[in-house]
Write a structure and sequence with these properties.
The complex is a heterodimer of chains A (about 110) and B (about 400).
Chain A (H helix, E strand, L loop, with lengths): L11 E7 L2 H7 L5 E6 L4 H11 L19 E5 L2 E2 L11 H4 L5 E5 L5
Parallel strand pairs in A: 1-5
Antiparallel strand pairs in A: 1-2, 3-4, 3-5
Chain B lengths: L2 E8 L2 E8 L6 E6 L4 E7 L7 E7 L3 E7 L43 E3 L5 E3 L4 E7 L7 E6 L2 E5 L7 E2 L20 E7 L7 E6 L2 E5 L7 E2 L20 E6 L7 E5 L3 E4 L7 E2 L12 E3 L7 E3 L17 E4 L7 E3 L17 E3 L7 E4 L5 E4 L7 E4 L5 E8 L1
Classes of the chains: A alpha+beta (about 110), B mainly beta (about 400).
Chain lengths: ~110, ~400
């Protein structure tokens, strides 16, 4: 469905993003979200591209005003927790190559 | 024939309950936004098919949703299309509630009182209450936590703070109640488009007479014994205010403790708890056609948020307060320990006024005869946060 890319830009990284259930519903995405990121691939640039492609997700992952990760979400990359890393640190090549996804995980809390 | 649509916001989604004017046979649609907290949903009086929703989550923050077809389909305002959007900055940011701290407004208020006596930054958390304009379908107000009033004039696509409220002078003294510092009540005066009443826990009630530019506290007569000065101008935990649109100068308030009445647009209040068995509670409303007929749901105390003796009772006054009668027909007679929250009571405007309320146990009760007889129109919903009624 909405996760398929319709075109590719040269030099763009094709990134797969695994979204939590509620955000998949908001974005009307089945399976992984697919985005293109031009330039350095970081958490911020990936999330910018994700929100550009899926505007219904704006503000749901990063706080509108501070730009910080929402407290109960985590970022997993290549089996590592990137939640506390700089949002501007470059992501591993495997993410840009599409072989590893950027995983956005809702923490297990509440009822 | 007339019909009614009951909009129910719950802890885990939104529901729409519909019936014809007899209000006997109900259909339930939903859950919409399943799994999300729906603090409030309300239809536009101008265009009843236009319904605004506050959808919120501890994980994902605040969303505004809108229906233009009476609740059949929903979208975030300005984000209706599923097509890939054009490049460039977005024209609609329906979920962004940015406090106005600009110097141009003259209201650069950034902090309020915190529990430890220090000043604490204003932080947006969620929308507690949505109030569509009485005259413009695209104009809608939102009361938020941390307390502030926002307005959209483009159907919820973008929001601007009415910063005169926070900046009127007492804002730095406002302090959160146990449930957070929420602006939960917005009442628009149908006889005066520039007059708005709002209430905040635990700051009190406020009024503007100039469309929001300037505000003043309207808490004279309120007495709150948890405060060092029980009659202070600011700091009262107002739970809800109700008004009959036909008599906009008369207000009724359920305070933390005490049921109060004002006959001068909030300039002064007097207690009308009268013979209520307890005057703690959250919900209060006024009969659609009898402006001296009020409804409250007495709750045992601020320490025990459930009805007295396990008996769920609505209390009605036909005398504008002071004298109250219990209404029990059709309501649980024993072992009932639910709460009825501040925005979870509403009335319809049919000739025989219907009264509705929802409980934290997931029941929605309705009376089609002004409160004499009650029956559940939904029994097993998630905890009910808000109830609104549209008479169609």
């Amino acid at each position: 469905m909405g996760g398929e890319l319709s075109s590719s830009k040269p030099n763009a990284a094709n990134v797969r993003v695994v979204l939590p259930y509620h955000l998949r519903n908001l974005a009307k995405v089945e399976g992984d979200a697919a985005i293109e990121v031009v330039g350095p691939l970081t958490l911020n640039s990936a999330l910018d591209a994700l929100e550009q492609r899926y505007p219904t997700l704006r503000g749901t992952i990063r706080d509108y005003e501070t730009g910080k990760r929402r407290a109960f979400l985590r970022f997993f990359v290549c089996s590592e927790d990137w939640s506390l890393e700089s949002m501007d640190r470059e992501l591993p090549e495997e993410v840009g190559a599409g072989s590893e996804p950027l995983m956005i995980i809702g923490s297990i809390a509440g009822g | 024939m007339s019909s009614v649509r009951v909009l129910v916001g719950t802890h885990k989604g939104a529901f729409v309950l519909s019936a014809d004017g007899k209000r006997k046979d109900w259909t339930v649609s939903g859950p919409f936004f399943a799994g999300w907290e729906i603090y409030h949903m309300k239809g536009s009086p101008v265009d009843p098919d236009r319904i605004y929703v506050s959808q919120t989550s501890g994980w994902f923050g605040q969303l505004i949703q809108r229906s233009d077809d009476g609740g059949q389909t929903w979208h975030q305002p300005g984000l209706a299309s599923e097509a890939i959007p054009p490049p460039g900055p977005p024209s609609a940011l329906p979920n962004r509630f940015k406090y106005d701290t600009s110097a141009e407004t003259g209201k650069p208020l950034t902090t309020h009182q915190w529990y430890d006596g220090t000043q604490h930054p204003w932080e947006f958390k969620r929308v507690w209450h949505i109030e569509p304009s009485l005259t413009e379908a695209d104009t809608v107000y939102a009361g938020v936590e941390d307390a502030a009033l926002f307005r959209s004039t483009d159907g919820g696509e973008n929001w601007q703070e009415i910063s005169g409220l926070r900046g009127h002078g007492t804002g730095s003294q406002w302090m959160p109640g146990a449930g957070g510092m929420g602006l939960h009540t917005i009442i628009l005066d149908p006889s005066d488009g520039k007059r708005i009443y709002i209430a905040i826990s635990a700051a009190g009630a406020f009024r503007t007479d100039d469309g929001g530019a300037t505000w003043k506290p309207i808490n004279k007569g309120l007495v709150s014994n948890f405060m060092p000065d029980p009659s202070a101008e600011i700091g009262h935990c107002v739970h809800h205010i109700a008004m009959n649109p036909r008599r906009p100068g008369v207000l009724f308030m359920q305070k933390h403790w005490d049921v109060m009445r004002s006959d001068d647009a909030g300039d002064s209040w007097r207690e009308v708890s009268g013979n209520l068995p307890t005057d703690f509670g959250f919900a209060i409303d006024v009969h659609a056609h009898e402006p001296e007929t009020l409804y409250v749901v007495p709750i045992k105390s601020d320490s025990e948020h459930f009805p007295l003796e396990g008996k769920l009772r609505v209390y009605r006054s036909r005398t504008g307060g002071d004298e109250w009668e219990p209404l029990a027909k059709g309501l649980p007679e024993k072992d009932c320990y639910v709460n009825v929250l501040r925005d979870a009571m509403a009335v319809d405007t049919l000739d025989d006024c219907g009264v509705y309320f929802g409980t934290t146990g997931g029941q929605v009760y309705a009376s089609a005869d002004g409160g004499d007889n009650w029956s559940p129109i939904a029994r097993d919903l998630p905890a009910v946060l808000s109830v609104e009624v549209q008479t169609l």
